[in-house]
Amino acid sequence: MLQRYVRKLIEDYINEESHKIFFIWGPRRSGKTTILKDIASKLSVPVFNFDLLSGRELFVPSREALEKIASEHKIILIDEVQNYPESTVALKILHDEFNVKIIATGSSELRQKSSNFDTLAGRFTESYCLPLSIGEINENSFIKEYDKNNFQDKTAKQLQIFGAYPEVYANKKLSESEKIDLLQNILDTYILKDIINIYDLKNEKLAKDILTKIALQIGSEVSVRELANSLGANAVTVSNYIEIFIKNYILIPLPSFKTNIRKAVSENRKLYFYDLGIRNIIVKDFRDLNLRPDKGGVFENFIFSEIEKKRKNTHAKQTMYFYREYGGREVDLILEDYKKKYICLEIKIDERSTSKDIFPLEHSFAIINMHNYFKKITELFPERIKW
Predict the structure, then answer these.
(1) How far is Cα 204 from Cα 192, in angstroms, rounded to an integer?
(2) Same topology between domain 5-128 and domain 134-380
(3) Is the overall model pTM greater than 0.85, yes or no?
(4) 168: nearest Cα among 283, 279, 29
(5) Mean pLDDT, the chain cut into blocks of 10 residues (387 residues total)
(6) Which residue ranges make up each domain of the chain?
């Protein structure tokens, strides 16, 4: 079984005195259920699956009903908690009255669905189980020191084509055709259909068309109004669909950095994919990177998604932006911490490329390319765990 960053945090949680609810968020098929089943096996406790009515019915907000569960299990494991938003009340009772530990996973954060989520304030902690990060892959690979550069180069290329969903990356027996079929299944069954059902969306074709349009312009700013016009759709509807994809860990938003400097401008966001395998199945392109006209945007998405995964995994206190001047010059990525310290990053697929440093505030500056990406991303945020 692959060792995941969040699994180490769960082990710490199980062994510590805290009885806060531990939420784990991430997209479907990112490994959350596998982790819960492994914990359940080792602790000899069940997993209550809120995909199933039988699982949801056990967690009615009744002290008598919940006392029966708490008396049997001091650690309660819940999968797909977003399917039962009303469980917020039951979770609060279990936390407040029965001194049990609760580990609950969700493909969409419960706060987006539950009107009572605010009542859990101060009663929970949270982490993420996302597609595999390069750090997790590195720790699971046991590569000899002399082969690390070659391994990191091959890994970057593989993740840019087939992505980092655990079952796609880790199953070495899958042919390329089988990987493509699996990614199509994840897109159709667990991304589109699942989100359509959870949010009761009316138009699956529009949802897929929105993702396709975004996939074809990675690295560029996305105008919701222009996107809606091109699809013959309402701008508010398109905006709502995009926000749902963001909340469900399909898309990552990158807003524009605003300063008081008048030459900085942009009202739009850039949107990237958490997983490039999903992006590539949407545009139906799995060619070698050297044959692709979008290789620059793909590499930019790869770097940005890896930084975002590490930012979430380590709970780093940085906010991410891009910066553009009126003249068109850009900084690809700006990291801003809570003390207004800035790191500016330029992303270049060609290691021979250079870039002019144009950000107007005091900052550090670095270029990330295929040769140094692993080292640069590793250095960004301190790890919270020791592997």
Answers:
(1) 7
(2) no
(3) yes
(4) 29
(5) 91 93 94 96 96 95 94 96 92 95 89 82 95 94 88 95 96 96 94 82 90 95 96 94 92 87 63 98 96 95 97 93 86 94 92 80 94 94 75
(6) 5-128, 134-380
